[in-house]
């Protein structure tokens, strides 16, 4: 089964009376277990496409299927459930909750899922160990470096056991060594757990790490590199 199918998707944003096309008839398929980068400059449409795949926005035209579900047919409640249980998100700005500790941030999605407290804590601590944050469970985001905060964000995304993780510019705020370590960690999770990873990026390091790169330009696909 295809993990993601995008068919002739179009998206236009309106700025006053001006229409700005973000995506112009994009079609692509992503297989389960992919480690894939949507690459392109600012304004190419890659983040828009990532948000549409994650159900954070809706296309003006076309069809998107994720994990066998046609997003356009889902009610708001069903879409929320799909995001909660099947899709993990890693945002460029981390989006951690500042008043919560690292382990509490990692637990947050599982809390929404209704996972029992002890299981939540055990799973969160185990995945924080896995991303190299052992001993930092009780630090709040302000007490962590940018790289450590991004690792907490990755831990939060994967600990809920999603089918796919969508990561928007995950290395944008990191130095090269920290970024390389984060990508290696995500590649290891991809290979060990079979989780599908899709990145939006303009970072050559992410493109080099990806097994497939789909390039975008001006809201259209501009070729791909399969590895």
TrEMBL record:
Gene Ontology molecular function, alphabetical: ATP binding; ATP hydrolysis activity; transmembrane transporter activity
Pfam families registered for this protein in UniProt: ABC_tran
Protein family: Belongs to the ABC transporter superfamily. Macrolide exporter (TC 3.A.1.122) family.
Organism of this sequence: Desulfoluna spongiiphila
SUPFAM superfamilies per record: P-loop containing nucleoside triphosphate hydrolases (SSF52540)
The protein, known as: Putative ABC transport system ATP-binding protein
Gene3D superfamilies in the cross-refs: P-loop containing nucleotide triphosphate hydrolases (3.40.50.300)
Record domain ABC transporter: where: 4-227
Cellular-component GO terms for this entry: membrane protein complex; plasma membrane
InterPro entries on file: AAA+_ATPase, ABC_transporter-like_ATP-bd, ABC_transporter-like_CS, ABC_transpr_LolD-like, MacB-like_ATP-bd, P-loop_NTPase
Keywords assigned: ATP-binding, Nucleotide-binding, Transport
